[in-house]
């Protein structure tokens, strides 16, 4: 059974997709970028600020599904500049218990929606 997850505490989709889909006990999130969920404007300034906004958006989506970061089993991180990896990793890592951190890949890409510098998606299980 497929259940659509939506919260107004994370940015509304800007295309034909949902914030997340729950199938049985597995949650598949769409990628989150650093959008303020109220203004739908990009939160910028530096890569740490962008990453924190992405993680807060992800936190809201997880909570809407009755989960938190301890439920996350896999993440995908897309970044514009691999030189930002250490800064992104520091912010990202602060949301997880390192002993139980999820599997992950980090990929440098040419461009992301709204010209942001980071996008993250997750898979979580109950």
From TrEMBL:
SUPFAM superfamilies: YjgF-like (SSF55298). Belongs to the RutC family. It comes from the Bacteria. One of its GO terms (cellular component) is cytosol. NCBIfam families: Rid family detoxifying hydrolase. One of its GO terms (molecular function) is deaminase activity. This is DfrA. Transmembrane segments: none annotated. It comes from Flavobacterium subsaxonicum WB 4.1-42 = DSM 21790. Pfam families: Ribonuc_L-PSP. InterPro entries: RidA, RutC-like_sf, YjgF/YER057c/UK114.
């Amino acid at each position: 059974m497929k259940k659509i997850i939506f919260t107004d505490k994370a940015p509304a989709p800007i295309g034909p997709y949902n914030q997340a889909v729950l199938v049985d006990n597995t949650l598949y999130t769409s990628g989150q970028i650093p959008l303020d969920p109220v203004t739908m404007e990009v939160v910028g300034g530096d890569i740490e600020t962008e990453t924190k906004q992405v993680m807060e958006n992800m936190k809201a989506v997880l909570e809407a599904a009755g989960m938190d970061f301890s439920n996350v089993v896999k993440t995908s991180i897309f970044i514009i500049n691999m030189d930002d990896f250490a800064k992104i990793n520091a912010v990202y890592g602060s949301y997880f218990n390192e002993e139980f951190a999820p599997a992950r890949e980090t990929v440098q890409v040419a461009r992301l929606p709204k010209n942001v510098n980071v996008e993250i998606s997750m898979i979580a299980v109950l």
